[in-house]
Amino acid sequence: MTRFNNWHSANWLLAGAIAIALFCLGAFVDRQAYYACWLAAWWTCAGAVLGSQANLWLHDLTGGAWGLPLRPIWRRVAAAMPMLLALMLPLVVAAWTFYPWAQPGWTPQAEAPAFKAAWLSPPFVTVRLLVYAALWQATALMSARREAYWTAREIDSVRGRAAASADEQYERPQPGKRRKGGSAFCLFVYGLTVSLASVDLVQSLMPQWYSSGFGLIAVAMQMKLGFALGVLGASAPGQWQTTPGQRNAGHAGPVAPYKDKTIFLAEMGRDWGNLLLMYVLMWAYVGFVQFLIIWAENLPNEIAWYVPRLQTGWVWLGGTLVMAGFFAPLFLLLFRSVKQNRQRLRGLAMALCMLGWAESVWVTLPSVPGLTWHALWMAPLALAGMAALLRTMPLPGEHRMRQRPIAATQVQEGE
Q1: Residue 352 in contact with residue 225, Cβ under 8 Å?
Q2: What is the pLDDT of residues 111-138, one digit of tens each?
Q3: For a pLDDT cut of 70, what percent of the chain falls above it?
Q4: What is the Cα–Cα distance from 251 to 409, expressed in whole angstroms?
Q5: Helix, strand or coil for residue 251?
Q6: How many alpha carbons lie under 13 Å from residue 362 in its C-beta half-sphere?
Q7: What is the DSSP annotation of 88-144?
Q8: Which of 244, 249, 276, 363 fits a 20 to 30 Å CA distance from 42?
Q9: How far is 242 from 271, CA to CA, in rounded Å?
Q10: pLDDT of 244-288, one tens digit each?
């Protein structure tokens, strides 16, 4: 198994290296598009990794059986944090060459706060980016160590409960106050750093424009993307087992063992669908409130961010995000037949993951003036290369956990 995993990782590494090498050729064609597409791809991957980690911390605080099958997926995605931070290095270079405020002679508008020029100076931005990276890595390491310890306790507990009845609620060993306190602290650090990073990396592409809700929108986007990614992985065909009577109908059986052998109840699909709907509504609400306030004020400095998005060809991407990212999930997730059907729920989660990249493109590329058509092929190449490289990262403690096998028992409905 170890040899197979090494071969599998090598293939992902090779694919990622080829895609990144082809993408880097774009730097000789269009330097602006090169940095803009790298930022869009990295912001998408950051949303997946940081959003998965944040959902892990949130489940530590709330508990609930709904998160048990999702935790292994989130742990796998969050394990890519070191690679994500390594891919952040070109953005540090961009802080000295790419952004408008990095150009010689740039000064903020007269009505801007006095500290803005210092805040957007390349040395200060570089220091902040390094601080964000250090905090993200530190919280990820702290979480990984606690997760490895807790997973071992959980496996020991499940060993004695593999034959539990279908109508018996599986109770995960409850984390103590110290674990919950650590997760709450990590969530606070996450919200603060992501909000500031969204201002430094994305909002400052148009340095004269500012929105106090931009960081909250970024957090909502990442949490939604992380949860959709967890549902996408946990609802894969290899993760589900169905009873013979339900196999043709496409519904999940009442209980299915996962890699960590937690017990899966039929209500999981409904819970996941409801939580997906909650994330979609939260994301749409904060985005609409920002748009409504700016539209009502209708000031030149306020509408500057929306003008290149709504009065150019980018308006089609914005319309797609509204229709496919809000109205379609809002309608589909109202039906239990969608939430409790594996294929339909998985398809919806996949669509939301793809729209996460589309949203990253929406918030970055229109803010960069003078982009050429080369961005059309550079943007997907950058995302494909980064995603493949992130896939090569091993799960912390994976080898040790393989040495703790447990027997799984699928429980049929009605027993």
Answers
A1: yes
A2: 666 677 788 888 999 999 999 999 999 9
A3: 76
A4: 19
A5: strand
A6: 22
A7: THHHHHHHHHTSGGGSTT----TTS-TTHHHHTSHHHHHHHHHHHHHHHHHHHHHHH
A8: 276
A9: 18
A10: 333 333 333 333 444 433 344 457 888 999 999 999 999 999 999
Return the SS3 of 30.
coil
Segment 325-345, tens digit of pLDDT: 999 999 999 998 888 888 899
Q: Tell me, what DSSP letter sits at residue 306? A: T
Report residue 306: phi and psi, to 5°.
-85, -20
Q: Which residue has the tokens 């605080």?
A: 61
Kindly give, in sequence order, each residue whose CB lies less than 8 Å from that of residue 113, ignoring residues fewer than 6 positions away.
Answer: none
Does the pTM of the predicted model rise above 0.90? no
d(CA 297, CA 306): 13
Domain boundaries, the chain: 2-105+113-402
H or E element in which residue 219 lies: helix 214-234
Q: How far apart are CA 104 and CA 216, in angstroms?
A: 31
Contacts of 302 by beta carbon, 8 Å cutoff, 6+ apart: 209, 294
Nearest of 263, 262, 241 to residue 253 by alpha carbon: 241
Torsion, CA 23, CA 193, CA 191, CA 62, rounded to 10: 90
**Residues in contact with 333: Cβ distance below 8 Å, sequence separation at least 6, in sequence order:** 273, 274, 276, 277, 280, 339, 348
Contact between residue 41 and residue 379 where contact means Cβ atoms under 8 Å apart: yes
| Rounded Cα distance, 9 and 23, in Å | 21
Q: Name the residue among 251, 278, 238 with its Cα closest to residue 343.
A: 251
Nearest Cα neighbor of 338 from 411, 235, 265, 259 is 235
CA-to-CA separations, 277 to 51, 309, 321, 349, in angstroms, rounded: 16, 26, 15, 11
Q: Is 338 within 8 Å of 344 (Cβ atoms)? A: yes
Residue 10 to residues 24, 389, 391, 402, Cα–Cα distance (Å): 21, 10, 10, 20
**Using CA atoms, how far apart are residues 58 and 223, in angstroms rounded to an integer?**
10
Note whether 207 and 100 are within 8 A (CB).
Answer: yes
pLDDT of residue 135: 96
Beta bridge partners of 341: 251
Tell which residue, 358, 341, 88, 314, has the closest CA to residue 224. 358
